[in-house]
What we know:
Blueprint: H1 3-22, H2 34-41, H3 64-73, E1 92-93, E2 99-103, H4 108-113, H5 120-131, E3 140-143, H6 157-174, E4 178-182, H7 184-191, H8 197-200, E5 205-207, E6 210-215, H9 218-223, H10 228-243
Parallel strand pairs: 2-3, 2-4, 4-6
Antiparallel strand pairs: 1-3, 5-6
This protein binds uracil.
Amino acid sequence: MTPDDGRDDLKRSLGATLEFAVGSGGWVVEGASAQSAGQAQEGAQADGTNPPADLPILSSPEGGPLAAIREELGECTRCRLSQGRTHIVFGVGNPDAALLFVGEGPGAEEDKRGEPFVGRAGQLLDRMIAAIGMTRKDVYIANVVKCRPPQNRDPREDEVATCIEFLWKQIDAIRPRAICALGAHAAKSLTGSAEPIGRLRGRVLQARGHNLVATYHPAYLLRHPVAKHHAWEDLKLLLSLVEG
Ligand code: URA
């Protein structure tokens, strides 16, 4: 690697950080151009990021322990959420990822396409991942429940209890160095703590022996961009765990 390559990497990473910071308005970083804010709004399209909305994706793990878990899940009817779903949203990404993101449950777009975080919140998640120098292909992304709760209501306790065993199996298979719980529901499901996200975030928690950092859900950050600087602190903490 030449010194120039290093500088290019740094510039790319800084650009992604600024895009995460200024996208959707709110936390405007000094010196960030209006153009970079506009680019951030367009959503991610480059390789390894959120695909264009008209592309159907039904990703299934190819081989390995994750494929076995997907097979065990089958055409699941273990809880009532199966009744309204279009697709099971199993999870996507690197089966050996050092960093695992966990959301609450699929929304309408995810249900339609079979992949987690492909709507507006997913585009922001892509920028959060890019801000720490990674892409969707480097990390793994899953949810606590794998079928869309009707009208995007919170998953009920019995639905979480039924489905989360498959997430624990995914975690055992991937063995990430760190887990990022996106939002209070994911944090509660994985750590057992019902504290509000504002109190949980910013420190390293434990989830069955795994290091976990909770942060604001990207959907919350879209509504409250002022909280992005906290999310950025959480992402840096995650990166330190991954690299440590
Ligand atoms: N919100 C989530 O928690 N998960 C998704 O997959 C999409 C939106």
